[in-house]
Structure formats: structure tokens, C-alpha cells
Amino acid sequence: MDKLTLERIETAHPKLKDELFNIYTKINSKLTGKAICRFAYVIRTFAEQKEIYAQGRTKLYDASGKRLGIVTKAAPGWSLHNYGLAVDIVLLKDTNQDGKFETASWENTVDFDKDGKADWMEIVEIFKEHGWKWGGDFKELKDTPHFEKSFGYSVKDLLTKYNAKDFISGTTYVNI
User: Fold this and answer.
1) Alpha helix locations (H) across the chain?
2) In Å, how far are 39, 77, 147 from 3, measured between CA atoms?
3) What is the pLDDT of residues 78-120, one digit of tens each?
4) Gap between the Cα atoms of 172 and 157, Å rounded
5) Is the pTM for the entire model greater than 0.85?
6) Which residues contact 63 (CB under 8 A, 6 or more apart)?
7) Cβ distance 39 to 1 under 8 Å?
8) Nearest-5° angle of CA 122, CA 73, CA 68?
9) CATH placement of domain 3-44+79-163
10) Cβ distance 147 to 86 under 8 Å?
11) Where are the domains of the chain?
12) How does pLDDT run across 132-150, given as a tens digit for each residue?
């Protein structure tokens, strides 16, 4: 199992940690080829969200002068990542066939393990079996690496709880 993914699962909302571990275990048993799944993001702080939201808006260029595009519609507090209720994935390929999964891939049609189904879509199927929404099904801005589970709460509801400091005791996770 990918150590970073296991660490990131620990940052999820407490109501999701065990479920995410089970999902990740299923993913690992399903992908048996030249790629593994990494959870690239689980929780994202409001400060991190602010930085991403600025890209293409107030932060127009990167350090090398390359023009930045908008990568999210969600301002700080308006992403389920801010509450530990979302996951972004990436596939890591074993490009050199040396057991080192280091090359990131967002290819969602490739069947790396040659079992007749795109690896990405196998992951989508597993998340959906557990009641998660997939960003690839979004009507407006498709977000194929994204999965979310809000337990019926809107982002506005979660932000209200956050601002009211309606947290699980001893944490900054909102009560849901």
C-alpha cells in the first residue's frame, strides 16, 4: 500500500476514515498491473484552498512566468475537501517496470493491468459502490480525479457549522 495515501486517509473526516481505508484496500486488490492509486488530496485547509482558488484569478503567473488557468470554482470553505469529505486520486505508473510507481497519470481510459477494464473506471466503480459521488459525473466542470461524500450536507451547511465552531470535540472537523 502507498504510504502517502495511508497518511492522507488519516486526514479525512473521522466519519470516513474507516470507509476510505476499506475503499483503498479494495482498489489495491483490483489493480494488479503496472499502476497503483494514490489519494493526491483528502483534506485541504482553507489556506490551501485560498492558494488554489487564486490561480488564474489574482495569481496569474507561476514562478517561471507561465500563465496560470483557473483550477477550481471553490473559494475557501466552499470545497468538501475543506471538511475532509472529498478525495482526489491519481494513478502512479511503474514506467520502468522496476517496482517503483513514480509517474503520475490521469489517463482514465487505460487498462494498465490488462483485465479488460480501464483502471481509473475500476476505481470509480468502487467509490460509487460506497455511495460516493464522482466528479466525472458533474454537469458543469468535470473533475475526474474527484470523489465526495457529504452525508446530505450542502457546502453552505458545512461552512455555517465551521463558522459556528460546531466541531467534533477536540478537533476542527465539523459535526455531521
Assistant:
1) 3-9, 17-30, 46-54, 119-129, 155-163
2) 10, 28, 20
3) 999 999 999 999 999 887 777 788 889 999 999 988 899 999 9
4) 15
5) yes
6) none
7) no
8) 95
9) 3.30.1380.10
10) yes
11) 3-44+79-163
12) 999 999 998 889 999 999 9
